[in-house]
Amino acid sequence: MRPASLLTAAVALLALSAACDPFGLPATRQLESGAAAMLSPGNSYEIKGDYTTDGNRWTIDLQVAKPSLRHVLVTSSGQTVEAMIDGSDGYFRGAQFLAAHLAGNPLASSLIQAAGSAWWKDSTGLVPSLPDFTDGATFRSTFLGTAVTQRIDHQSVDGVDVDELSGARADVYIASSSPNHLVRVHLKKGVIIDGIQDADLHFSSAGRDFHIAAPTSVVDFSNFSTLPPIYTVITVDTSGCASPCVVSAKLKNLGGTAAAVGPSRVTFTMTDAASGRALGSCSAAVQSDVGYNSTTTVSCTLGAAATNAAMVTASVDNPGKGS
After folding, report:
1. Residue 222 backbone phi and psi in degrees, to 5
2. Confidence of residue 113 (pLDDT cuts 50, 70, 90)
3. Sheet holding 278-285, edge to edge
4. Which of 172, 173, 181, 176 is closest to 204 using CA atoms?
């Protein structure tokens, strides 16, 4: 056979391998189509792994139920954030994350206490959307097709026989057997996609029903009247402090009347102004909550006699919303 004929035969064999491998291996196009189909609208799957963003290492567990539902749990340095996304609505849980989100707000501590362990509502932009990893067409454009420069068959990832398609951006591992689900994506060093880098993400649970549903009991910080009570002390009245010593405090509610895990309580403390020594204390619950920006008065009897050098202060414990 002449050299030109040999070249023609080699090209024909290469084309045949791309379309239908003569040794029973899936064609590259078949692998790519299977991976993209797994991430297509209407399908569900789970992504677990870790990545780096803004210098912090995060661990992620993302459950996707297309077209609009997601449940995500991300952890970094002991900080855990749980989020539920339902279309354009985002719901969150995580005290540390909330504290960082409210940093600089003068009511931050009160709002955090009011939220308790409940879900709170905010922008979906607080959750990484990762479109290049969760949208089939975008994934294919970013990591597959002309982005692939090397293929290695019969690798093993998470106990699955996979074929590796690698390029300058990532190593992509796709199950060898039909329907050729995506199994793993490992970003190359220094590559940043969707704002994350050094990512090692594992894909599983295709077609699973995660029972994702938006929470029904939610704190909405955009409307304080929907919050549980957040009482703050306006004034302390000691004019009734004789024998016995009756003290009272005027309170203002910066929140609303949503159900809390318990009533707010006011603690009065009498201290010696010179030494700072506690002379007595008492506490009382707010018996009937008042609405947003309304005031109420709470009183109790101190177990100490009034003295000229005594000082009485009051503090409020607002237990906040339950889960």
Report:
1. -80, -10
2. confident
3. 278-285, 265-272, 310-317
4. 181
